[in-house]
């Protein structure tokens, strides 16, 4: 009889030892414990790698053909500016240099273009004084990354944090932040920038009106130059943050409202967990997942810069360089900038996939 009564007790102990905290099941707060070794999702990895490789090939191919479908080319524009000072032999030499010789078949130009890319040669920019495209991009890219990149990160962190708090305290006074930030997000960048220049630069004189630093300042790692860069970049950065933070606030708040209705949030609160832990460890961590994809894409498009913003503030970024290349029909520089932009977006998507796998164990379990 004792043996019969001990068996259920043993089973109950086994079940109790394998019980899982209901607040952790199906959430991203912790990784579910599973026996055996972790299976590597090679099929998923291979599929994603093939997708990104195909996307890169398609983007590079389109990048090659689209400029050549436009009317005119960089050599025609350069010849027009030279007002007949170049001989036909010089024009032919330029066309050979830029791969625009009509005597060479288009498919051969395409193969030559791939050969140059594999050697790391992006060509020569005719609109920057025959400078290598890589050097022209390398000179403009840090300004865009420093300004737009930092502003994007700040707006994401501030907007996501505010959205989490506003969603957690829904129906409170903080809800007023949603229409205010959304309204500011509908204001065009250039209009907001012009208003800020008029108020904070012209009237109050707190910030410089444009450029990256004052004329006569020698670039270098010294206090004078760094101070100039920070003061000139403050106003455009504030403009970008104010204009873009509303989208992050609204998106995070809406996701928080959805997550707060989940059962594991109710169970966590019923267990007496502190509200701060429930907010950041459970609700916000799950609600932020859709924001990660948008943030990764935003990081990818940082490389493209904000052309209008850089025009308003006369900021020497990659967007202004792209506009100059387009006006001059500088194929090589346009292709180089587009290539960097596409690669940045692809890398950002890869980072988003990795972030999803880290933040959401269900992704790893499903793909495994």
Short recap of the structure:
With 368 residues, the chain is mainly α. 71% of the residues lie in helices and 1% in strands.
Structure description:
This protein has helices at 2-17, 42-69, 74-82, 88-97, 106-118, 133-168, 177-186, 189-203, 223-259, 263-270, 275-287, 289-301, 307-312, 318-327, 331-359, 361-367, and strands at residues 124-125, 131-132. It has 368 residues and is mainly alpha-helical. The protein has a domain at 144-316: MetI-like fold (Orthogonal Bundle). The chain has a two-stranded antiparallel ribbon with strand order 1-2. A hairpin with a 5-residue loop joins β1 (124-125) and β2. α6 (133-168) packs across α9 (223-259) and α6 packs parallel to α15 (331-359). The radius of gyration is 28 Å and the shape is globular.
Task: Characterize the largest beta sheet: strand count, sense, and whether it forms a barrel.
Answer: 2 strands, antiparallel
SS element count, helices: 16
Which percent bin holds the helix content? over 70%
The CATH class of the domain at 144-316 turns out to be Mainly Alpha
Model regions low in confidence, pLDDT < 50 over at least 5 residues: 1-36
Oligomer state equals single chain
Question: What is CATH's topology name of the domain at 144-316?
Answer: MetI-like fold
Chart the SSEs and their pairings.
Elements: H1 2-17, H2 42-69, H3 74-82, H4 88-97, H5 106-118, E1 124-125, E2 131-132, H6 133-168, H7 177-186, H8 189-203, H9 223-259, H10 263-270, H11 275-287, H12 289-301, H13 307-312, H14 318-327, H15 331-359, H16 361-367
Antiparallel strand pairs: 1-2
């Amino acid at each position: 009889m004792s043996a019969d009564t001990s068996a259920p007790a043993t089973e109950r102990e086994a079940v109790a030892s394998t019980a899982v905290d209901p607040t952790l099941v199906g959430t991203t707060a912790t990784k579910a414990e599973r026996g055996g070794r972790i299976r590597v999702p090679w099929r998923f990895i291979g599929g994603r790698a093939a997708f990104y490789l195909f996307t890169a090939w398609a983007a590079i191919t389109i990048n090659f053909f689209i400029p050549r479908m436009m009317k005119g080319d960089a050599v025609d524009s350069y010849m027009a500016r030279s007002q007949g000072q170049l001989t036909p032999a010089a024009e032919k030499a330029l066309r050979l240099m830029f791969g625009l010789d009509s005597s060479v078949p288009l498919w051969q130009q395409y193969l030559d273009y791939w050969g140059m890319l594999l050697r790391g040669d992006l060509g020569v920019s005719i609109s920057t004084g025959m400078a290598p495209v890589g050097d022209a991009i390398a000179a403009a890219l840090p300004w865009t990354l420093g300004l737009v990149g930092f502003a994007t990160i700040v707006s994401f962190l501030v907007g996501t944090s505010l959205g989490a708090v506003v969603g957690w305290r829904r129906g409170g006074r903080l809800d007023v932040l949603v229409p205010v930030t959304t309204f500011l997000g509908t204001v065009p960048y250039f209009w907001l920038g012009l208003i800020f220049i008029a108020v904070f630069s012209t009237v109050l004189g707190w910030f410089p009106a444009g450029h990256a630093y004052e004329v006569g300042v020698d670039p270098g790692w010294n206090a004078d130059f760094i101070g100039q860069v920070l003061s000139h970049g403050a106003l455009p950065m504030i403009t970008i943050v104010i204009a873009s933070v509303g989208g992050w606030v609204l998106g995070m708040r809406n996701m928080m409202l959805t997550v707060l209705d989940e059962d594991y949030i109710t169970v966590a609160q019923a267990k007496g967990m502190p509200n701060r832990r429930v907010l950041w460890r459970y609700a916000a961590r799950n609600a932020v997942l859709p924001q990660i994809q948008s943030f990764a894409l935003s990081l990818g498009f940082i490389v493209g810069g904000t052309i209008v913003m850089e025009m308003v503030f006369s900021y020497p970024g990659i967007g202004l360089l792209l506009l100059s290349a387009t006006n001059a029909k500088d194929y090589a520089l346009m292709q180089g900038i587009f290539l960097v932009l596409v690669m940045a977006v692809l890398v950002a998507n890869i980072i988003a996939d990795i972030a999803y796998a880290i933040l959401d164990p269900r992704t790893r379990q499903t793909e495994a």
